[in-house]
Amino acid sequence: MAYFEWADDMVIDNGPIDDDHKKLVNLVNELHTATSVGRGQEVIEAIMTELITYTKDHLHREEQVMAALKFPNLERHKAGHHQFTERLNKLQSQYEAGSITVASQLSSVLRDWLSLHIRRSDKEIKVYLRKK
Q1: What share of the chain is helix, strand, coil (3-state, %, to 5)?
Q2: pLDDT of 40 strictly over 80
Q3: What confidence category does residue 86 fall into, taking pLDDT thresholds of 50, 70 and 90?
Q4: How far apart are CA 43 and CA 30, in angstroms?
Q5: What gap in Å lies between CA 106 and CA 108, rounded to an integer?
Q6: How far apart, in whole angstroms, are the C-alpha atoms of residue 63 and residue 96?
Q7: Does position 1 have pLDDT exceeding 80, yes or no?
Q8: Predicted model pTM
Q9: Helices then strands, each counted (H, E), the chain
Q10: Which entry of 32, 50, 114, 122 is 20 to 30 Å from 59 by CA?
Q11: Any residues with CB less than 8 A from the CB of 49 and at least 6 apart, and which?
Q12: Are the C-beta atoms of residues 3 and 32 closer than 8 Å to each other?
């Protein structure tokens, strides 16, 4: 069983948003697997860089989709994205300062945030798409 599994209740658009979310879930699992077998410090820099870059790119793409749809809660959604990006930047700074617990923190932070964000905030997009 994977650390973080994709579930049917996470489907938003059966398209690019879901593809991005699935990629992030896979990266979280890759990081967790590495930390579980004691290889977290070996892989943290590369995976963290990819996770953070991909997450920021995804959030930007998601915001573009919402803007194109004239999604009514875009600003609130963007504020949540900004807060999360700041959290990722803080973890990256901790890693760069020598913290050895960032790998495990990053995998749990991303798993928890992705799960809640997709199932709550991003669900608003799905509901809005259905109404349109």
Answers
A1: 80, 0, 20
A2: no
A3: very high
A4: 9
A5: 6
A6: 29
A7: no
A8: 0.86
A9: 5, 0
A10: 32
A11: none
A12: yes
What are the structure tokens assigned to 47, written together?
Answer: 């995976």
- CA torsion sign, 34 to 36 to 37 to 41? positive
DSSP secondary-structure letter at 14? S
Helix (H) or strand (E) holding 73: none
In the DSSP assignment, the letter for residue 55 is: H
> pLDDT averaged over the chain?
89
- What is the distance between the alpha carbons of residues 40 and 58, in angstroms, rounded to a whole number? 24
Class of domain 12-131: mainly alpha
Would you say residue 120 has pLDDT above 80? yes
Other beta carbons within 10 angstroms of residue 23's beta carbon come to: 15
89 is written with which tokens?
Answer: 């930047």
All structural domains of the chain with their residue ranges: 12-131
Whether pLDDT at 130 is above 80: yes
CA nearest 21: which of 34, 12, 30?
12
Structure tokens belonging to residue 97: 């300062």
At residue 128, what is the residue type? Y
